[in-house]
Amino acid sequence: LIRRRYIPPELDVFQDIILCYRCEQTIWYNREEVFDSVGFQGNDSDKVSGPRDIMKSLHPLHAETDPLHFIRVAQQQANALMLPVSSYRWYREQLKIEPQYQYGLFFTITIYKILQKYGFQSNDTLNIEKETYKVAGKNPLKHAFALENAMPSVEPMEHNHAYTRAWKRRCWEYLSTLIDEGHLYDDLDLQAIVNVFKNLNKGSKEYHVLNEILDRFVYVRAQKATEYVYRPLTDILRDTNIILSNQITFNVSSMTKLLKNNYLYYIFKDIDATLHEYAQLLTRLLFIVPSGVSAMKNANMKEFRQIICERIYDLAPNMFHYGGSSNSLSLDYFKSGNEGGRYQDEEEERKELKQNNDANSELTSLDPFLYIDIVVPTLIKVIYDCPISLQIQAIKALTKLCSDPKSFLMTKIISDLNEQGILSYVVNHSLTSRDDALCLALVNFLNNLIQNEAALFILVKQGIIQHILDLLMWQPKRNPLYKKDHNPQPFRTLNLLSSSVSILVYVTANQEFRNSFFRPQKNKRNAEFVLDILFSLIHKSNISFVTGTKSSDKSAVASLTVYVLSVLNNLSKDYDKNKKFIGARAIPIIVDVLQTSVSRAVLEIALKLVLSLSLDPSNCLYFRGEQRLNKLYPGLQKLMKGLRRVDPIQIRNFDDILTRCGEIGEFRGIVEEIKSVIYGKK
User: Fold this and answer.
1) Distance from the Cα of residue 423 to its chain's centroid
2) What is the C-alpha separation between 209 and 117, in angstroms, rounded?
3) Which residues, other chains included, contact 328 with Cβ-Cβ below 8 Å and sequence gap of 6+?
4) Which of 94, 301, 109, 86 is nearest to 173 (CA)?
5) Angle at Cα 168 formed by Cα 162 and Cα 171, nearest 5°?
6) Which of the following CATH numbers is that of domain 316-476+490-499: 1.25.10, 1.10.3470, 3.30.450, 1.10.10?
7) What InterPro entries does the entry give (predicted)?
8) What are phi and psi of 562, to 5 degrees?
9) Cα–Cα distance measured from residue 444 to residue 455, given in angstroms and rounded to the nearest whole number
């Protein structure tokens, strides 16, 4: 049984369809053969998709209707303010249908007059006559209340309080929509009103007028209330009898817009500078469901919750401002001999995060202790129970909270996350997702966590190494099911691959952990499997194949190459175990990188890996021969040109590398040439 609703211009026309299968009841539940011939789209578990496709294909053979009938019905719906919020502009522009009231026009003009008084300017789009502009007056509330009293209805409806309350709620939803879509003035929307409002003197008349209007747009009330009585929005949302009730109703579209424009942030900050109550409100609104059919008709709950998660992210404290060391790792980290760390992309990302936080200083973040106590439990619930789009925002908020792994609060954060099972969940469940956006958010979060020693041990125990290797391994599906907008091959984005390998950089910096998955003497097959995955990521012929794109971002490719070579460098640390095993397989690829790469960071780490592997005498054989040296030389020349512009103090970091390089006979001449350029030696 299905009910189908038609889109405009048919409007509220419904069709009930019953589809009958002539078979035994047990077949419906126990056998899939019934559905095989249907060819339905969607998940295999969605057994009603097949019947739904059949129903969608049904249509009347003859349709004889009077188009004017639908126009009349649509006009009456517009007058009753019962059109979907997102459809007012479409009806107005396509069908020339809009509510036949002057109050919305007057309301918008008076709002513009208030904003104009404080410097706001915009062009009107309808060439409003001077007389109309004059008649509108200066009080927008007068026109809003007049619209409330203009409910179109027959006499019985006028005496029904439920109809009256629903009408008044729709009035404010309509006025909010009319303002926000810029119907009369190009730049006049809710954001413009909020921008002027937050700079007004709190004792001025205009402040109180705009405050009441913005509060009424949301129209929050308890469903059981007999009548809406205006109270400041902050008072209503702090009333636990209302906000914690399952009988609350409000205009979801207006609430979404005001959350997006940070209006709720400003009014709550005025009464509580710590933002404790604002954070508490966000966590409560996230899982609230407005009651009442009329309130839910225009409720885009997905967008509503998405905006709440974005505001929760904004509240997350940037831990660079709360003690601890920044631990922002750059290329100097690689130069100085440290083998864990992230590449310059991530360093710039961290700097950008800090700059954004400073530039947007008017949006104060929450105290970290309050954030951990109030918001983190909600973020954990989102990761467990909510759609992927909300999970991504929750994970980003946790990433921001863990931006400084050496912060004194990391111990508490890691302990709380581990007790709630979230670390095990994201590693063993979420990280196996085929959604690249979710996986990218996760690996960025894990990259921050794994720099903390306690978190590193927990994550390795949860099996993060194997899950990262599985994520990096390209393996086409057998007999993929081709669907619309579905890529059957598991291509992953370069940024995801790069961030994933950076996790292995930190893991392999620990001898115990790198020996746990890379021990050629004990498990040669597994060691070859690891090398195959790493080499496949940086081989120039595989980049487009692995990522599913023909053209790749050069900076992303360079970042990925640096991480892979850093992992190989870490794995080559155990002289008697790994150098010889890695050398024969890695040196040809490294030489090719030195010949073709233009990235200085890639050249530096490639040279370091070459020198590390050359400590095994058998690996030096791979460098002998004029042809191999001719390939090495261009890379060293590029590096040499880059070093001319480097500070002499930084150059000395390479002194040890150059000395060891000079011990290899074939490199001696090149080393002397580099030293002559750097140090001015002949």
Assistant:
1) 19
2) 14
3) 347, 350, 351
4) 86
5) 140
6) 1.25.10
7) ARM-like, ARM-type_fold
8) -60, -45
9) 14
Q: DSSP letters of 247-298?
A: TEE--HHHHHHHHHTTHHHHHHHHH-TT-HHHHHHHHHHTT----SHHHHHT
DSSP 90-124: HHHHHS------SHHHHHHHHHHHHHHHTT----B
Q: Tokens 């290329």, residue?
A: 331
Indicate the average pLDDT of the chain.
75
pTM: 0.76
DSSP-derived secondary structure for 156-167: HHHT-HHHHHHH
For 535-557, write each residue's pLDDT tens digit.
878 765 555 544 444 444 577 77
8 A C-beta contact, residue 544 and residue 552: yes
**What spatial distance separates the first Cα and last Cα of the chain, rounded to whole Å?**
90
CB 395 within 8 Å of CB 311: no
Could you give phi then psi for residue 2, rounded to 5 degrees? Answer: -140, 145
Residue owning tokens 């973040």: 365
473-482 residue pLDDT tens:
765 444 444 3
The segment with the largest mean pLDDT, out of 22-31, 494-503, 510-519, is 494-503
* Residue 193 pLDDT class (50, 70, 90 cuts): very high
How far is the C-alpha of 609 from the C-alpha of 107, rounded, in Å? 70
Banded pLDDT at 593 (limits 50, 70, 90)? confident
Beta bridge pairs of residue 124: 185
Q: Which has the higher per-residue pLDDT, 264 or 511?
A: 264
Rounded to whole angstroms, how far apart are CA atoms 511 and 667?
30
Q: Locate tokens 């400590």: which residue?
A: 615
On the question of pLDDT at 633 being above 80, the answer is no
Give the pLDDT band of residue 681 (cuts 50, 70, 90). Answer: very low
Which residues does 2 contact at the CB level (< 8 Å), separation at least 6? 16, 17, 19, 51, 52, 55
> What average pLDDT score do residues 424-449 get?
91
Closest Cα partner for 467 from 494, 485, 442? Answer: 442
Confidence of residue 222 (pLDDT cuts 50, 70, 90): confident
Q: How many CA atoms lie within 13 A of 100 on its CB side?
A: 8
| Alpha-carbon span 295 to 415, nearest angstrom | 41
Tell me if 343 sits within 8 A of 335, measured CB to CB.
no
* 141 half-sphere exposure, CB direction, 13 A CA radius: 12
Domain boundaries, the chain: 2-53, 88-314, 316-476+490-499
Q: Cα separation of 507 and 567, whole Å? A: 9
Nearest by Cα to 36 from 486, 489, 476, 481:
481
Determine the 3-state secondary structure of 314 from DSSP: helix
The two structure tokens encoding residue 362: 């008017």
C-alpha 141/C-alpha 136 separation (Å) is 11
Residue 16 corresponds to which tokens in the numbers above? 């009930």
Nearest to 327 by CA among 221, 476, 447, 218: 447
Residues 148 and 128: their CA atoms lie apart, in Å, by 24
In 149-206 the beta strands, taken as DSSP E runs, fall at none
Q: What is the 3-state secondary structure (H, E, C) of 327-396?
A: CCCCHHHHHCCCCCCCCHHHHHHHHHHHHHHHHCCCCCCCCHHHHHHHHHHHHHHHHHHCCHHHHHHHHH
Q: Tell me the residue type at 678.
A: I
Lookup: tokens for 304: 């509503």
Please report, rounded to a whole number, the percentage of residues in the chain having pLDDT higher than 90: 27
- Residue 339 banded pLDDT, cuts 50, 70, 90: very low
The rounded distance, in Å, linking the Cα atoms of 599 and 538 is: 14
* Structural tokens at position 538: 């940086």
Residue 524 corresponds to which tokens in the numbers above? Answer: 């040669």
